[in-house]
Amino acid sequence: MPERLSFHIKRDSALHHLNPLTKLLLVLTLILTAFLAPFYWTPHILAVLFIPLLSMLGKVGREYFSTAIRLILPAATFLFAMQAFFQPVGEEIIFEFYFLDITRESFLFAFSNAMRIVVMVSAFTIFLLTTHPSELMSDLTRRGLPGQFAYVIISTLQILPQMQAKAQTIISAQRSRGLETEGGFFKRAGALVPLIGPLVFGSLVEVEERAIAIEARGFTSKHVKTSLHEIPDTSTDKLLRWFLTALILASIGLRIWLS
Length: 259
Fold this sequence. Notes:
Blueprint: H1 14-17, H2 20-36, H3 42-57, H4 61-86, E1 93-97, E2 100-103, H5 104-130, H6 133-142, H7 147-176, H8 185-216, H9 235-258
Antiparallel strand pairs: 1-2
Helix pairs in contact: 2-3, 2-5, 2-9, 3-4, 3-5, 4-5, 6-7, 7-8
């Protein structure tokens, strides 16, 4: 099985065919709308209705919902509980547990913030699932972004899948040597010790190797670079970007006008 260097899932969908910059602006629009729109139910509608429909449009619904159940919902639930119990606002108590209580105002405040986090993380998740990092890097550098900045962005997007792949390789190697990595909590915790060392040192070596590789490919060269794989930027992409920009400006304008 080839090593996966990104979360990208190759599918034939309308979302996959969009220009990477268009999808990046879509993510920004969803996040800013969720945080800046003056209407209370805006982030809830985006999280419950629009985001799942977007994942279906990109044909990555199964992967998105799997991530939502394992990562996004637990994180949002924890944030909701912390803010609901410890936010000192309101007097109308709707739930009480020993010395902790939740007021109606703290509940609405915590629920709204949790849904905003769901929108933010979900939007980035769908972006990662439908956009290959190399396409994003090629498109950004073609538009004039310095290569150093593009490399930082791409490295950030790839660090988790690379660490996961490396960790899985090390676990398989340790199992072949007779190390038990399954069982109770303490046995699993003990198995982490021989895993952390090779993972950390291997990552440091990989950083040095990557630095040598990009220098050998003329990464810091001032000459104009070309690419064998041209990223399409259709009129539909341009029209959609103007529409998304208008939505961002409308959200900011409504926020200022109604505040």
